[in-house]
Design goal:
Length: 269
Amino acid sequence: MGELGSKLGLSELSGGAAGISKALLAEFIGNLLLNLFGCGACINISQGNTAAPDIVLIAFAFGLTIFAAISAIGHVSGGHINPAVTIGLAAAGRVKVVRAVLYIIAQCAGAAAGSGLLKAFTPDRVAGSLCATSLGTDVTALQGFGIEFFLGFVLVFVVCGVCDPNKPDSKATAPLAIGLTVTLGHLLAVDYTGSAMNPARSFGSALVVNMWTSHWVYWVGPIAGGVAAALLYVHGFSAPAQETPRYKAVASDEKELKRLDGSKGEDLA
């Protein structure tokens, strides 16, 4: 049972309760910000629900929010802010099962809180569906699944690439790379599926406005794509481990060097 508990990550609850609590709070806040700022960009206060959505504005709002959130909390929780990322990394063995489950709960709660705040801040006449994700005109559920699959795939593929432990230099640009990937996904898919890429983001909006049509698409699609991307990267594209140098440079004492230099002309025999 001890070995099973270790594999599941139960030790994180007993030995590192403070750390896991901070990580869960970080994931909660990250998703709260995502649904508040990202979904808020979908609402046009001046023109109401009749205005056509500005896809570029929406794409950059979501991408910049992810960039900002990961920059702030990445060192605390890893900056997943997405169940598809969490489950993908868990499938690749980089996140324990217990932590993954707790992350997903915190992510969904944060997204619901963000959408709830957005509803409270928005006039009823323009609130509409509060940017709840839904399939576009004539887009079938299967087509929506395909789009969300590849949205989850590209996101987790990039996450694995920039967070590869054998590529330490890429970690500095990770928040920007991940944020721009979210922007990329929205530029493609807003008209198809609303471009969720994130089951928690869809769940938060759906819960607040009670809109669950084809909701399974926004869970199964990104998660399946994320798992496929994580397994593909870990088993096919991981950077090779860096070799440690066989010999280490030894710093010599400066005074000793001077003494040796001064004794070059002396007869040492």
